[in-house]
Design goal:
single chain; mainly alpha; 15 helices; 70% helix; disordered C terminus
Length: 368
Amino acid sequence: MEEEEEESRPPYWQSMIAGGIGGTTGDLLMHSLDTVKTRQQGDTHIPPRYTSMSSSYATIFRQEGFRRGLYSGVTPAFLGSFPGTIIFFGTYEYSKRHLIDKGVPHSLAYLAGGFVADFAASFVYVPSEVLKTRLQLQGRYNNPFFQSGYNYRSTLDAARTIIRQEGVSALFYGYKATIFRDLPFSALQFTFYEQEQKWAKQWVGSRDIGLGLEILTGATAGGMAGVITCPLDVVKTRIQTQINPNEAATIIPARATNLQQNHTAPPPINSPISPIQKVAEQRRQISTSSPSTSVRKPGAVTLDTSSVITGLKLLYRTEGIAGWFRGVGPRAVWTSVQSGTMLVLYQALLRQLAIYAPYGENDGASVV
């Protein structure tokens, strides 16, 4: 078993390149669905403009198009996803191999490696996700169809404006809640995946398990991790998308008045906005990472806390187990497709890189 483990260790640079391309492809493939989710979570209009996933998808496409609507925010998504996944896979492989070589059980090494890797990558992907979600919520510049409170000309303009008006710390809004959800997700995802890969290879009797099993192991690993961490996703989404009562007293009456005056379209983007309202909208926290597919139902309890643990307890007391797993279906689909795409491409690229750049015992594949 140790020889097999050693043989399956490609150089770190190959794991990082394959993981970076695979992870970025998976993220970009699901970007339009992520945009719809972001609009649903950040929609504070009364009544809501975006309801079901399918109708919201069609509405955004019809009104704003593909590039500037469904794929708004794709530039920061790419700029964060590629280096983020490179860091993730490099850190994961190093941590996993180091722990295994120290005698740590494989399953525990996979779990710990996922935790450490996601934490290392978070310093890159969280700031990019803040930029991405604001641009997704905004849509196109001077968007006449949806009033988000944001109106950036480009990704660069968004970064400059946020830093100038809100400080560098604004690029890390929702960092704590993101870590509480994403670290367990990544740890479970790769623990499931490594174990399923091992079982598949034993069943087939070869290291080449075929495309069908590659898809199955990747998709089920992400899907199961997504379902198990769904309660953390729900609490994270509630904490980040709810409006502070003090802010609501300023924002909601103003919006309600505007909507009564104009039933068919939001107020013009260039209409006067008070400084208090502008700052309140800019500081509204929305989901800053994928995959988050939980949408707060009307009348749901407000989680008046920043603690994930307290939020879980309050949610269970008020809505029961069903509240913990709200939106579990879309989340399972999202994580399955994204994980399957990423991990299938990861394995395929590793095989291709091994052909063009074969590695041996002294090529840095093993941990000293």
